[in-house]
Design goal:
440 residues; alpha/beta; Aspartate Aminotransferase, domain 1; Aspartate Aminotransferase, domain 2; 2 domains; four-stranded antiparallel sheet; 41% helix; Kynurenine--oxoglutarate transaminase 1; PyrdxlP-dep_Trfase; aminotransferase; Aminotransferase_I/II_large
Amino acid sequence: MMAQLTGNCNEMEAKMSRPVQAQRLEGLDKNVWVEFVKLAATYPTVNLGQGFPDFSPPDFVKEAFVKAVSGENAMLHQYTRVFGHPALVTILARFFGKLLGQDIDPLTNVMVTVGAYEALFCCFQALVDSGDEVIIIEPYFDCYEPMVKMAGGTPVFIPLRPKTPAPGKLMSSGDWQLDPAELASKFTRRTKAIVLNSPNNPLGKVFSKKEMEIIADLCVKHDVLCFSDEVYEWLVYDGKKHIRIASLPGMWDRTITIGSAGKTFSATGWKVGWMFGPDHLVKHLRTVHQNCVYHCPTAAQEAVAQGFQREFEHYGKPESYFVQLPQELQQKRDRLVQSLLAVGMKPIIPEGTYFLIADLSDFKAEVPNLPDCEEPYDSRFIKWMIKNKGLAAIPVSAFYSTAQKRNFDHLIRFCFVKEEATLKAAEDILQQWKLKKTGP
């Protein structure tokens, strides 16, 4: 009997010794958020790393959520329409249809997803095939590259190149630009799509209409799709204007536009996202959606629908949250800029988003560079900063392809969308740091 059991165990071990990981996951296991969020939680830290507000959403959407879960409509606790709660897709179609000057059908042109993350995943899984090339503009939100590879595609990178600002001026995210000839060279017969993120995370760049037109013309010329990640569409500063590439000639029929209630209403934990575009593209995303997550939380969708209805009625008015939020965040941005300048870091002024990038080249005396170290300098610096200064950020090298990481590992990303107490705590850390650097 014992021999039989031993034999069975050996047989089980033999069966389990075969590779279990799908090849498409090879090399995709590392994730900057997992590593640095864990590190920030391990040490007493003021967390300006991960991109979420530590303040509440506006009262009107919180009240809508409370009403959805505590009211008498029992169906708000049950499954709703698989491709989006009727109230939400209806107001999204109405709202964005007005902005784009486009007749948007809520049932065929709009789909609600589990955050913008799922919308991106559906784009790549539904529309990118083995051998397809996808152009990614660097720096880029880190999920784009692995999502392309998981779909069997090949990422093709094109960098935004910084230009030296005028004497006496701080560098702006607007100083980082594409080279039109270099961009054109990336389009080939294998190019299936380009990923556009404006406002851009991590840089904060808001692409101008002229830059958008260059991209649009190339998409039309080469019959290429555009996945337009516009989650920070309302968070633009200094009078900049967000341009929706789907509004440009020839682009509606080839663009999937992606949005996020998390960024729109400061409610990242609700995980409500959406995408809209022409039905001949969206129908394939519906196929992916119905065969993975299938359904998104009903009550959260109802609350977001009520939020958009309120904003539709107040659009462009002083009482609009979409008007008030960027004004508030611009002040927070400017406050962090001054704090970083005081300690000797060189911030790059973002035109949009939650984030600003700072140049830490002058700090290499505190954390010496190790030329033979495989880990990028910015990653090592932030680990040192978390452990020794109690301040968390994210390495910008994480937003670059392998070939470019070393060229940009003197930059780190801070999130300034934090309540006053958090920003004050960060200021205090930076002030103490300054005193230690300069001495009494």
